[in-house]
Each structure stands twice: as structure tokens, then as C-alpha cells.
User: Which sequence fits this backbone?
């Protein structure tokens, strides 16, 4: 068994990621008590009922009291407000972290409110599903996935090492980089993919000559994969795009440029260009599987839900 | 057990779809002998070794002899050539079909070469994985998925009914529509999704400030899903885009228009528009799951490959 690393952990927000941290930390046996907070009464009730936290408070200020590790797990749009609210209540020596999908704006919103003696280390586990809420979490969510930490140059090294160790025990690999570089990398590996998934689902829903029912029935040709990503939490994603504007707009500009090249090749029947670009794209998939970031099973290992044959 | 519907079936091309038809038809017990053809010696050897066909011929002309059902399962770019080649060898009364992802151009390429007494019914099973070749097939591929048939107005009704029954026994649902409508529907549910998946993977691979290795490591944030689709067969997809140009360009134009709206909302910090459009997109996912076209399990039921925790 592992030793207890933190006697008391406070999860501010108990959705998919907060609840998964609770499951994974208990599995690892590295935490004493876990408390949490949510402004939503139903979430508080569910989190206590599921044993995710021993106590779910209404306010973050109450939850952080005496906590050795505080992790913000709400949509990033409210981080600034929470940081101001918890400031007077943070325990000296505590580590303050988060799981937000954008890092430069998060550091900007939180860092000015961190009291002396509290160690702020921003973080982002690159893991998730399209589901939300305290019931969506599970202990294996972080296994084999990467967690990126973006400490500032003057952050206490012991605190960084401790948080890194915490994430490793949750099952993650850990990498440290600057908030700005994080936002660029995630812009292309996560934010733009989500944006185009949201977009194509809405494009499909607003066609005059193809019904929604047809879009749904014949979605197994590729579209259904996009609907999964587009089922992610709208408020969380709104905040991501509002807070990683520059990187997303840059990546989106490149995506659109490249798409115009393909569009032109289709218009002029340039099969050579199409085949070459499609062949190049195929190679990256092998890298993803070799790096253990996806299953090599065909179709993600999905199988039809029911067999109609006998 | 089912009765034998076709004494001899010829699969022209024995890749993912051809081999899956063989598996599913044998599972259903509805065919006598299955033969096939491939211009690739390794494919012929593998198809015979796996028992997908009793005999794999080098030419389509040899394979179609005495076949009651002939299904073209090659990339659609060579359909015209195959249709001319097999014309003198088709058995009177035989049904000729295909599995191509585009239908108007396929009907245009094949119909003129179909001899009197042979019944041509174009078809398209909306099913697949990102893998290719004779080893990629499996019997369950069509279970619960849709197969679209696009017969011409004067096609023999008995032949249509027989082919429909064949696909149902392979596990499919069957819908009949015009080739033109098929191409519009698949343009948005399959062709454009593949194009943007190919495209974002290439955009990511050509960034100066983010390495390929970073793109791969941090792909679990959404990008990895696109790499799966972008791993599909380049030649097959080249032919799809060359042959469904009008519908794809129309759908792509709408996709790009809609993307500009999102881009502008991000640029001007219009969170209300973002949240509204993301919320709308979420609803379609529920429809896909209710229609049995995808699993409701989070993240397609994927779980990390290995647990590092003890």
C-alpha cells in the first residue's frame, strides 16, 4: 500500500474529473479525507451518497479549510471568483491546483489571489469522456494518460514534486511545460477537434434536404464519432474557447487553410494530392497506438449492440 | 437454419467489406460456394487461407462465371473497368451489386455495361472500421447497421427483394432511396467527416511550434478519435471524393460557413452563442444512441490499456 500523501483533499467542483480523482485517489490509498463543494444541491447530495466526499459543502470557502491539497474542478470561467473566495481560508503550506483545459488564462486568473505560503501549481489531466457529473467518474480514467503541470518559475519545487507524485499514483504520466505551450498543444489536440465536432453536428442538423432522422440512422459512416465528442459539457467548452482564443484562432486558421487545399483538389479532380494527403494522415494513427494513447482494436473495439441474426 | 439463397456468390475484391460479407453470409447459412477475385497475389493467398473464398481468381471475369450474385467490393474508381470486363461472363438471371460509398457515379459507371437479363442493384452497407484487407473482416460488421440500396426505377422487383433479404440475413437493416439522395446523405454523415478528420491530422502534423511527438502524447483530448477515421484506406477515400464531388463540395461549404460563425464568436468573446450551439449539438448524440447506431457507454467503452497503479 502507498502512504497517505495528503490528509485532507478538497475538490472544488465534483463532476467527471473531480469524481474520478476521488475514485483514483482512494484506489491508490494516498489520501485521508476527501471533501468537496458544489453550488448545485443535487450534485452535493449525489457526491455524498456515492461516497466521493465525506462532506460536500455549498461553498468553496468552507471546503478548503484545513485541506492540504485543493483542486479546482469547475469550469474555468469561475476560477477567478473561486480564487478570491477561498483566499482567506487556505491553509498555510497547502498546494492549490486545478484541472482546467486552458492554462495561461488560469494562471492569470488564480495566481494574483494565492496567499504567501500556499503553493499554486496549475495542472491538466488529458483524460475524459463525453459524460458529465459526479456519477460519470471512475478510478481508471487517468491510467496511462498524461497530466500536464504548468508551474511558474518561482514555484516551490517540493510542491511541484509532490503534486507530480500524486498524479502518478492516480495512474498518470506527468509532463511539465509552460502554460503558453500547453495552450498551443491542447489547441490542436483537443480544442479545435472539439470545435469542429460541435460544428459538423450542427451543420448536419440544419440541412434542408437531409432529415435529422437520416443523419442519425446513417451515422455509422463516421458522423457518430463526432457526435460523441460534441456531447461534451457545453459550459466547460464555452469557457475553454473564451480562454484560449489566440491559440484556437491560430490553429483554426491553419485547419481552414489546409481544408481549402483538399476542397480545391476535389473540385479539380486531383486524385494524386488527395491520395498523398490521406496516406500521410494514416501514419499518425500508428504513433498514437504505439504511444499507448488509444486502443489498436478496430473501431475502438466497438461492436454492434445487438445481433439480429440467428 | 436459413435456406441457401445463392448457390454461388462472387466477391470482386476481398478487403474489409468483402471478407465481412463472406463471414456474415456463412454465419447465416444462406450461400453455397463463395469465390472471389483480387489483382493482388497476397490478397488471393490470404483469402483462400482464411477460407473466405473457395477459390480466389486473378480476374473478375473468371470469378463471375456461374455466380448467382456478384458483388463489387473494390475501390469505386475501377468499377467501370470491371463492369466492361465481366460483361460477357455474367450468368443470365444473376444479380450484380456493389458496396461502394458513392452511388450516382457508380450507377453511371456500371449500368451501361449490364447485359440484358442481369439485374443490377447498387448497394452500400453503412458499416466499416478503419482497417483494410482480407484479415480485417468479421461476421458482426453489419449487425444493426443500415444497408442502402439504390435500384433504378425499372429494376426487377424480385431481384431487389432478394438482395434486400440477403442483407437482412447478414444482420443489416435495409433502406431504399435514389442514388442522388444517398450521395447527399452520405456526404454529410460520412464523406465530410472523413475529409475533416484527414485534414486535422495533417494540420497537426505540420505545425512548427508543436512536435508530432507532442501531438501523439496528448492526443487523448479528442484528437486521437480523428486519427482513427484518418487511418482509413487512402485509395478508397480518394475515389469517394472524386466521385461525390458536388455533394461533398456543397456540404463542405456549409461546414465552413458554420465554422466561421463559431470562429467569430470566439474572436469577439460571444460566450452565449458558443454555449447555445454546443448545447444544440449535444442533443443529436442522444438520437444516435437511441437509434442503436452507437454504444451509449462513455468514450465508446474504451478503457485505458494498462493500469499502472497497484
Assistant:
Amino acid at each position: 500500500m502507498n502512504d497517505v500523501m495528503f490528509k485532507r483533499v478538497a475538490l472544488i467542483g465534483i463532476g467527471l474529473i473531480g469524481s474520478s480523482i476521488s475514485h483514483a485517489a482512494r484506489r491508490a490509498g494516498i489520501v485521508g479525507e476527501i471533501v468537496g463543494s458544489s453550488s448545485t444541491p443535487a450534485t452535493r447530495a449525489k457526491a455524498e451518497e456515492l461516497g466521493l466526499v465525506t462532506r460536500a459543502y455549498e461553498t468553496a470557502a468552507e471546503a478548503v479549510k484545513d485541506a492540504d491539497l485543493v483542486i479546482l474542478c469547475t469550469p474555468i470561467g469561475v476560477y477567478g471568483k473561486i480564487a478570491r473566495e477561498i483566499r482567506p481560508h487556505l491553509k498555510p503550506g497547502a498546494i492549490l491546483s486545478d484541472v482546467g483545459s486552458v492554462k495561461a488564462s488560469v494562471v492569470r486568473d488564480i495566481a494574483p489571489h494565492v496567499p504567501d505560503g500556499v503553493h499554486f501549481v496549475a495542472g491538466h489531466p488529458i483524460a475524459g469522456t463525453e459524460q458529465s457529473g459526479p456519477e460519470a467518474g471512475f478510478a481508471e480514467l487517468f491510467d496511462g494518460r498524461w497530466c500536464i503541470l504548468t508551474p511558474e518559475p518561482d514555484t516551490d519545487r517540493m510542491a511541484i514534486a509532490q503534486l507530480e507524485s500524486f498524479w502518478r499514483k492516480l495512474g498518470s504520466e506527468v509532463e511539465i511545460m509552460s502554460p503558453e505551450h500547453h495552450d498551443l498543444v491542447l489547441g490542436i489536440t483537443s480544442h479545435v477537434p472539439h470545435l469542429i465536432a460541435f460544428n459538423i453536428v450542427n451543420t448536419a442538423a440544419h440541412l434542408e434536404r437531409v432529415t435529422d432522422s437520416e443523419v442519425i440512422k446513417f451515422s455509422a459512416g463516421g458522423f457518430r464519432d463526432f457526435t460523441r465528442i460534441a456531447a461534451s459539457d457545453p459550459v466547460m467548452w464555452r469557457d475553454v474557447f473564451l480562454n484560449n482564443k489566440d491559440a484556437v484562432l491560430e490553429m483554426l486558421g491553419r485547419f481552414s487553410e489546409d481544408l481549402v487545399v483538399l476542397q480545391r483538389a476535389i473540385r479539380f479532380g486531383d486524385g494524386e494530392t488527395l491520395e498523398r494527403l490521406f496516406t500521410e494522415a494514416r501514419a499518425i494513427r500508428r504513433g498514437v497506438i504505439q504511444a499507448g494513447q488509444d486502443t489498436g482494436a478496430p473501431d475502438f473495439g466497438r461492436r454492434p449492440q445487438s445481433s439480429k441474426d440467428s
Observations:
- The longest strand of chain A covers residues 6-12.
- The domain at 6-177 of chain A is CATH 3.40.50.720 (Rossmann fold).
- Chain A has twelve helices and nine strands.
